[in-house]
Specification:
Blueprint: H1 2-26, H2 38-44, E1 46-57, E2 64-69, H3 76-85, H4 99-106, H5 114-127, E3 139-142, E4 146-148, E5 152-158, E6 175-179, E7 183-185, E8 195-202, E9 214-216, E10 218-220, E11 226-235, E12 253-259, E13 263-274, E14 282-283, E15 289-294, E16 302-308, H6 311-317, E17 326-336, E18 348-349, E19 354-362, E20 371-373, E21 377-382, E22 384-392, E23 405-409, E24 422-424, E25 430-432, E26 443-444, E27 453-456, E28 459-467, E29 472-473, E30 478-482, E31 485-486, E32 491-492, E33 499-506, H7 517-546
Parallel strand pairs: 10-21, 22-33
Antiparallel strand pairs: 1-2, 1-3, 1-5, 4-7, 5-6, 8-9, 8-11, 11-17, 12-16, 12-19, 13-14, 13-17, 15-16, 18-32, 19-20, 19-21, 22-27, 23-26, 23-28, 24-25, 28-30, 29-33, 31-32
Length: about 550
C-alpha cells in the first residue's frame, strides 16, 4: 500500500502541482500598474492557504501518507457529494468514499489533462460559493513569504483586498500544492496583461504627392467626411504551460470608447477575432457581443461600450485556442461635426478632438464578475480653417468688399469636375458637403469681406473668383497649401497659408505702368509716326504749290 500510495502521489504531483503551479505562476489576470515594481507585487498581494487534505508529507515532498480530510473541508460528505455532481469530472468519483479514494482518482491523470484544471476549479468554487464568501485560511501573508504550519494538500488563493478605484491589479490563479511543514511559500510573479490601442485611418490628402494612407495615432479629416476608428485589444498567450485562461469559467472584455464633442458616431462596421499576430481573422457575430451607445448631439462627448461576455466561446467558434493569445478588433465609422475644434493659424496648436478607449477584462478566475481595466489609449483628429478676406483697390481696413463669389477646387485647372462641394453653415462659414445630390454653393464674401472655409483636410487647394462684384475685375486664382506635421496632441502648420487676401480693381479703365514697358513704347512709336506723317504731308503740299 505504501508503494501504491507513493506512486499515486507522484502522479498527483505531476498532474496538479506541475499544471496548477505553473498556471499560478503565470498569473492569468493579466494586468498591473505599469509603475508597479516587483516589490509592490510582493507586498500588495495577500494569499490564503486552504487545507484540503491532511497527511504526512515526506521530506522531499513526493509522498503523503495517512491521508484525511483537511481543516478547510469540515463537511467532507457535502464536498464529496458535490464533487460527484460536477458535470465535468464528477463521474470519475462515483465510487469514492474517502479522501484517499479521491487522491487515487487524481493520480491517474496526466499533467496536461483538462481534468486536473477542472478539479482545481471545483475546489476553488466549493470554497467560494459566492463572490462575497471569505473562508478563513489556515495561514495568510504576502508573496514575500508566509509559513504553512501543517503538512498536507493545500489550495493557495490570491485574496488581495483590491478596491474598485485600484487600477491594473490582477489576481493570481489558485494553486494546488502538497507540502511538508513548516514550509515557507513564495509566489513568483510572471505578470502578463492585455493591451488596447485606438487608431484612426488617414487617407491621401487632396493635392498631396505623398502616401498618407494608413492607421495612425492621429489623422487629418474634413468636417462631415466619414472616416474609421479601430480599437485593438491584444490578449497575451498564457505563459509556461499555456492553460491560464482555462481557470476562468468565462473571460470577458469590454471596450469603453469616448468620442469628443466634435466627433459623431455613425455606425459599427466589424468586430473580429484573430490570432495574436492578427492573422486568420474571423468575424464575431452580434449574438456574442453587446453594443451600448450613449450619443449626444449638443456639443457633449459621446461614448460607446462594446462587451464580449465570453471571449473563450468566440475563440473556439473561430477555431482558435485562446491560450495561444488573440487579437480582437472593433472598427466603426464616424465624422467630425460642427463642434469640432479647428486649427486656424500657423505654428503649433493643440486640439480638443481627442478620443480615448480603455479595456475592461476579467482579472479573477474565481469571480466571473471581477473586472479590471487597462491604461487609456488616445488618438486625435485634426481639421483646419481657411480664412479669406475680399477688398477693393487695396487691403486697407475699410475697403472690405461684399458680394464676391468664389469656389474651391482640388486641381489648378479649376474644371467643374475638380470643384470641392461646399455648403453654408449657420455661423456663415462654409464646410465640405459630402452628399451626392446637387451642386455645391458658391461662397460669397460678407459685409466684412470674409468667406471662411471651416474644417478642411490637409492638402493643396485652389481658390478661384467665379463671380466678381459688378464693376470689378476678377482676381487671379490663389493656391492654398495646408501642411500639417503632427503628433498625438499637437500639430505644426509651418509652411501653410491659412489666411488669404483678394483685392479687386474696378473695370473700365486701363492703367499703364509708370516707367518703361511696352505701353510707353507703343505711345512713343505712335507719336513718332504721327510727326513723320505731318512732315511728309507738309513737304508734299509745298511742292504742289511751287508747281
Amino acid at each position: 500500500m505504501q508503494i501504491m500510495m507513493k506512486k499515486a502521489i507522484k502522479k498527483l504531483l505531476a498532474a496538479l502541482l506541475a499544471v496548477a503551479m505553473l498556471c499560478a505562476m503565470a498569473i492569468p489576470a493579466f494586468a498591473y500598474n505599469p509603475g508597479e515594481t516587483e516589490e509592490d507585487l510582493n507586498t500588495k498581494h495577500d494569499y490564503g492557504a486552504f487545507q484540503i487534505f491532511t497527511g504526512d508529507v515526506s521530506d522531499d515532498n513526493t509522498t503523503i501518507s495517512n491521508v484525511g480530510w483537511g481543516e478547510s473541508i469540515p463537511n467532507h460528505e457535502d464536498f464529496l457529494e458535490k464533487l460527484k455532481e460536477d458535470l465535468t469530472i464528477g463521474n470519475q468519483f462515483s465510487n469514492a468514499k474517502t479522501a484517499q479514494d479521491v487522491l487515487m482518482v487524481i493520480s491517474t491523470w496526466d499533467d496536461s489533462d483538462d481534468d486536473s484544471i477542472a478539479f482545481a476549479r471545483f475546489v476553488c468554487k466549493y470554497l467560494y460559493p459566492t463572490a462575497d464568501a471569505k473562508p478563513e485560511p489556515d495561514d495568510t501573508g504576502h508573496t514575500g513569504g508566509f509559513e504553512i504550519r501543517k503538512p498536507g494538500y493545500y489550495l493557495i488563493v490570491d485574496i488581495s483586498p483590491f478596491h474598485e478605484d485600484d487600477f491594473y491589479h490582477a489576481y493570481n490563479s489558485f494553486l494546488l500544492k502538497v507540502t511538508k511543514a513548516p514550509y515557507h511559500v513564495i509566489i513568483k510573479h510572471k505578470v502578463v496583461k492585455p493591451t488596447v490601442e485606438k487608431e484612426v485611418y488617414d487617407n491621401n490628402d487632396i493635392g498631396s504627392t505623398g502616401d498618407n494612407v494608413g492607421w495612425h495615432s492621429s489623422a487629418d479629416h474634413a468636417i462631415n467626411e466619414p472616416f474609421q476608428f479601430r480599437l485593438i485589444a491584444k490578449l497575451p498567450a498564457s505563459k509556461d504551460n499555456g492553460r491560464a485562461y482555462d481557470y476562468y469559467d468565462k473571460y470577458t472584455v469590454c471596450f469603453n470608447d469616448t468620442l469628443s464633442a466634435g466627433i459623431t458616431f455613425d455606425n459599427l462596421d466589424t468586430v473580429e477575432i484573430a490570432n495574436v499576430d492578427g492573422s486568420d481573422s474571423k468575424e464575431i457575430t452580434d449574438t456574442d457581443y453587446t453594443l451600448v451607445k450613449d450619443l449626444h448631439e449638443a456639443g457633449l462627448p459621446s461614448s460607446i461600450k462594446l462587451s464580449i461576455d465570453n471571449v473563450k466561446t468566440c475563440a473556439a467558434a473561430a477555431g482558435l485556442n485562446l491560450n495561444d493569445g488573440a487579437t480582437i478588433t472593433v472598427t466603426y465609422t464616424a465624422h467630425l461635426n460642427d463642434n469640432a475644434t479647428v486649427n486656424t493659424a500657423n505654428g503649433s496648436n493643440t486640439t480638443e478632438n481627442k478620443n480615448s478607449v480603455f479595456l475592461q477584462y476579467s482579472n479573477n478566475p474565481r469571480i466571473n464578475t471581477s473586472l479590471d481595466k487597462t491604461p487609456t489609449s488616445d488618438v486625435c483628429v485634426y481639421t483646419y480653417q481657411l480664412n479669406n478676406t475680399k477688398y477693393h483697390d487695396d487691403d486697407t481696413p475699410g475697403n472690405e468688399l461684399a458680394g464676391a463669389g468664389f469656389r474651391l477646387y482640388s486641381n489648378e485647372a479649376c474644371h467643374d469636375e475638380d470643384e470641392i462641394k461646399l455648403k453654408m453653415n449657420d455661423d456663415g462659414t462654409y464646410s465640405r458637403d459630402f452628399s451626392t445630390e446637387g451642386k455645391g454653393v458658391e461662397m460669397l464674401s460678407n459685409k466684412d469681406g470674409q468667406f471662411n472655409v471651416k474644417g478642411l483636410d490637409a492638402g493643396t487647394y485652389y481658390l478661384k473668383e467665379t463671380n466678381p462684384p459688378t464693376g470689378y475685375i476678377a482676381c487671379p486664382m490663389i493656391t492654398v497649401t495646408i501642411k500639417a506635421n503632427h503628433t498625438k496632441d499637437r500639430v505644426d502648420l509651418s509652411g501653410s497659408n491659412l489666411s488669404t487676401t483678394f483685392v479687386n480693381k474696378k473695370a473700365g479703365g486701363i492703367t499703364l505702368p509708370s516707367t518703361g514697358g511696352i505701353g510707353t513704347t507703343i505711345f512713343y512709336v505712335v507719336g513718332g509716326g504721327l510727326m513723320v506723317a505731318a512732315i511728309v504731308l507738309l513737304v508734299t503740299k509745298k511742292r504742289m504749290e511751287n508747281k
